[in-house]
Design brief:
Blueprint lengths: L4 E2 L10 H11 L11 H20 L7 E4 L2 H16 L5 E5 L4 H12 L3 E5 L9 H7 L4 E5 L13 H9 L9 E5 L11 H4 L3 E5 L10 E5 L25 H39 L4 E2 L10 E5 L5 H10 L2 E2 L15 H5 L4 H5 L1 E5 L6 H21 L1
Parallel strand pairs: 1-11, 3-4, 3-5, 5-6, 6-7
Antiparallel strand pairs: 2-8, 7-8, 9-10, 10-12
Helix pairs in contact: 1-8, 2-8, 3-4, 5-6, 8-12, 9-12
């Protein structure tokens, strides 16, 4: 094999050259601070406004309901901590799930330090929560519910629309609880319309749709009460102070336009290749476990648990063979405990430590898929024979 094959698109997608072109064009004209009152500043502000319209249209929101941030982690912190601080006089109970990304779980742990009571909903064997589970967990003092849209680790898609409708029926006269969803993995693969989903806040990222790292967005439904958790200037409605990365945001908007034009066809191809990998690997290695839902699953995500083989060993063996795959979320890669998502679906420690994630994307080819299947099966057999 003459080139490396990248199969960790869930961690970050490569920058599309068409995105780089629009970013370079903006930067070549100076890239002034959009808060400047002079001509160059007004031009940057205009570019920022156009990008905001593009992002808003993509998810069925109004432009003023979108704020730009530097990462999904930042968006998640602003949403979770901001809602809690703004509404704590109405209750100190919040709800989330056991399989959230660490950028959601850790803000909830912070809330526990502040005296909030957190309910962590268990998931079924596929990593999913139901609308009924959420509804039953809501109490009169519940102010926030947070459910991940699609798992970054196992690809399972939660029934966000049904959950949102269930929460609507439990809202009090004060409009609580609010509903937040981390949709970083979902947005590239699932058509989003905020009104039909019933969410009040949602985060998503440029780095998952072939845009630049360092540009993300947070949807905040009109009228949602939110306290600022960062202080500084008045940028982004005062919720994310600091000079905006206009070139990154413009790149984000261009990535969205490409996804709008090509995403559906792309996903059909990825789902076909995803299923091929699952079928052929499990046929050759019947002892391998597939993690996540077989149907309600992201088109590009595969998670395998291999007993008696360490996931990190398999990742390194595949790396030496020219393939980039992972064991878990990149943000949690140095955690000394087994992957929490894999444990939450009922896997043993041995199975959890033997988990690897393969995620496909725009620049994956059919030859890449065929080469991966051959080498992956070979490396698993080799490592199992050693152990």
């Amino acid at each position: 094999m003459s080139h490396r094959i990248y199969l960790d698109y869930a961690a970050a997608t490569p920058l599309d050259n068409r995105v780089k072109e629009v970013m370079d064009e903006y930067l070549s004209h100076g890239g002034a601070n959009p808060s400047g009152l002079y001509h160059e500043g007004r031009e940057s502000q205009k570019a920022l406004g156009e990008a905001r319209k593009t992002v808003a249209s993509f998810v069925g929101a109004k432009p003023h309901e979108i704020i730009f941030t530097s990462s999904t982690t930042e968006s998640n912190n602003i949403a979770i901590l901001g809602v809690a601080m703004a509404n704590k006089q109405n209750g100190m109970h919040v709800i989330t799930t056991e399989t959230e990304h660490v950028s959601v779980l850790n803000p909830f742990k912070r809330l526990e330090e502040y005296g909030f009571e957190v309910t962590y909903l268990p998931v079924d064997e596929f990593g999913s929560v139901s609308a009924d589970q959420v509804k039953k967990a809501i109490r009169p003092d519940t102010i926030l519910v947070s459910v991940i849209f699609a798992s970054n680790e196992i690809g399972t898609i939660n029934p966000i629309k049904e959950i949102g409708n269930g929460i609507k029926g439990r809202k009090g006269v004060n409009g609580l609880p609010l509903f937040f969803s981390d949709a970083a993995q979902a947005v590239p693969h699932i058509k989003i319309n905020m009104d039909s989903l019933g969410v009040d806040l949602m985060s998503f990222s440029s780095s998952k749709i072939y845009g630049p790292k360092g540009a993300s967005a947070l949807y905040i439904k009109s009228g949602t009460k939110l306290s600022a958790v960062m202080v500084g200037g008045s940028q982004e409605n005062g919720l994310r102070p600091g000079t905006q990365d206009v070139s990154g945001i413009i790149g984000f908007a261009k990535a969205i336009k490409i996804t709008q034009a090509e995403g559906e066809k792309e996903d059909d191809k990825l789902a076909e290749w995803r299923d091929k990998i699952i079928k052929e690997v499990r046929l050759a290695l019947p002892e391998i476990l597939l993690n996540g839902h077989s149907r309600e699953r992201l088109s590009n995500n595969i998670s395998f648990s291999v007993s008696a083989v360490k996931g990190e060993e398999l990742v390194m063996a595949m790396d030496e063979a020219g393939f980039a795959i992972s064991t878990r979320s990149a943000c949690d890669a140095k955690n000394p405990t087994p992957p929490h998502v894999i444990k939450a679906i009922g896997r043993t420690d041995d199975e959890a430590w033997g988990t690897v994630r393969i995620t496909l994307g725009r620049f994956t080819t059919e030859d890449d898929i065929n080469n991966f299947i051959e080498v992956f099966i070979e490396q698993v057999k080799k490592l199992k024979s050693i152990h």
